[in-house]
């Protein structure tokens, strides 16, 4: 199971801050595609991804137990 | 008692408390950056802001920024506190304190810290205007940074 964290507008689009999906050994790109299929309101192509709190790329492999955060363009400070 | 140099809090920031964290007997200068909520941005009036963070990762990114500062200016000590939740006009969103033996490093390292916060720290603000709301992004035309080390781009206006 993969733990997914959503922030900012992504959280509002889905109506949840956290999702759990029964997937494992997929790339970040595949996970994004899966989510976009299940949540058609989501567009994740321009969104940064963190795997276990480290910035990742679309080719990073995601395993069961990992925490994936989708990080829209940031605006802190 | 261990003092946390990097914090995300949902209460007003005590600037003096952040300053105290970087004090030491070798310091000859302390710079404080205080980021506050601005009312008018590009002609549009903000009523209030809402900040959200991914707190555990944000703290990690603050630590990474401190590490980068340590590499460039080993004598600098940095502390950062960012506030989340609802903030009104003129409220303090972020405080960065840097101490060093001489002032130049304290100024440079402090500016470096705020530039990096705007690039790699997962914190978002939602604008509440008179006629609607919007999560603000793309302040720096963000793209993925696999190394967490993008090139510093042009400075963006405060909060």
TrEMBL record, chain A:
Gene Ontology CC: one annotated term: molybdopterin adenylyltransferase complex
Keywords: Molybdenum cofactor biosynthesis, Nucleotide-binding
Single GO MF descriptor: nucleotide binding
Listed pathway(s): Cofactor biosynthesis; molybdopterin biosynthesis
A family per Pfam: ThiS
UniProt keyword Transit peptide, yes or no: no
One Gene Ontology term from the biological process aspect of the record: Mo-molybdopterin cofactor biosynthetic process
Keyword Nucleotide-binding in annotation: yes
SUPFAM superfamilies linked: MoaD/ThiS
InterPro entries xrefs: Beta-grasp_dom_sf, MOCS2A, Mopterin_synth/thiamin_S_b, ThiS/MoaD-like
Domain of life, per lineage: Bacteria
Function noted in UniProt: Involved in sulfur transfer in the conversion of molybdopterin precursor Z to molybdopterin.
PANTHER family: MOLYBDOPTERIN SYNTHASE SULFUR CARRIER SUBUNIT
Similarity annotation: Belongs to the MoaD family.
Subunit structure: Heterotetramer of 2 MoaD subunits and 2 MoaE subunits. Forms a stable heterotetrameric complex of 2 MoaD and 2 MoeB during adenylation of MoaD by MoeB. During catalysis MoaD shuttles between the two heterotetrameric complexes.
Protein name: Molybdopterin synthase sulfur carrier subunit
UniProtKB/TrEMBL annotation, chain B:
CDD domains: MoaE
Listed GO biological process terms: Mo-molybdopterin cofactor biosynthetic process
Enzyme Commission number(s) of this protein: 2.8.1.12
Superkingdom of the source species: Bacteria
Annotated GO MF terms: molybdopterin synthase activity
Pathway: Cofactor biosynthesis; molybdopterin biosynthesis
Record's keyword annotation contains Transferase: yes
Catalysis: reaction(s): 2 [molybdopterin-synthase sulfur-carrier protein]-C-terminal-Gly-aminoethanethioate + cyclic pyranopterin phosphate + H2O = molybdopterin + 2 [molybdopterin-synthase sulfur-carrier protein]-C-terminal Gly-Gly + 2 H(+)
Keywords for the protein's UniProt record, in alphabetical order: Molybdenum cofactor biosynthesis, Transferase
Keyword Glycosyltransferase: no
UniProt xrefs under InterPro entries: MoaE_sf, Mopterin_biosynth_MoaE
Gene3D superfamilies named among the record's database cross-references: Molybdopterin biosynthesis MoaE subunit
SUPFAM superfamilies, A to Z: Molybdopterin synthase subunit MoaE (SSF54690)
Function: Converts molybdopterin precursor Z into molybdopterin. This requires the incorporation of two sulfur atoms into precursor Z to generate a dithiolene group. The sulfur is provided by MoaD.
Subunit structure: Heterotetramer of 2 MoaD subunits and 2 MoaE subunits. Also stable as homodimer. The enzyme changes between these two forms during catalysis.
Family: Belongs to the MoaE family.
Protein name according to UniProt: Molybdopterin synthase catalytic subunit
């Amino acid at each position: 199971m993969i733990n997914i964290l959503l922030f900012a507008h992504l959280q509002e689009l889905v109506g949840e801050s956290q999702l759990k999906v029964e997937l494992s050994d997929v790339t970040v790109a595949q996970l994004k595609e899966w989510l976009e299929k299940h949540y058609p309101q989501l567009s994740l192509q321009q969104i940064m991804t963190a795997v276990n709190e480290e910035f990742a790329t679309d080719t990073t492999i995601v395993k069961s137990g990992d925490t994936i955060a989708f990080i829209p363009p940031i605006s802190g400070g | 008692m261990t003092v946390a140099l990097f914090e995300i809090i949902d209460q007003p920031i005590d600037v003096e408390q952040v300053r105290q964290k970087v004090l030491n007997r070798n310091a000859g200068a302390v710079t404080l950056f205080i980021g506050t909520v601005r009312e008018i941005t590009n002609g549009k009036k903000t009523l209030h802001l809402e900040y959200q963070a991914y707190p555990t990762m944000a703290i990690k990114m603050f630590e990474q920024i401190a590490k980068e500062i340590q590499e460039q200016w080993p004598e600098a000590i940095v502390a950062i506190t960012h506030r989340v939740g609802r903030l009104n006009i003129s409220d303090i969103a972020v405080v960065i304190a840097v101490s060093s033996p001489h002032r130049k490093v304290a100024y440079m390292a402090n500016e470096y810290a705020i530039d990096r916060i705007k690039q790699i720290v997962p914190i978002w603000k939602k604008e509440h205007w008179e006629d609607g709301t919007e999560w603000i992004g793309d302040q720096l035309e963000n793209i993925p940074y696999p190394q967490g080390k993008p090139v510093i781009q042009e400075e963006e206006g405060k909060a």
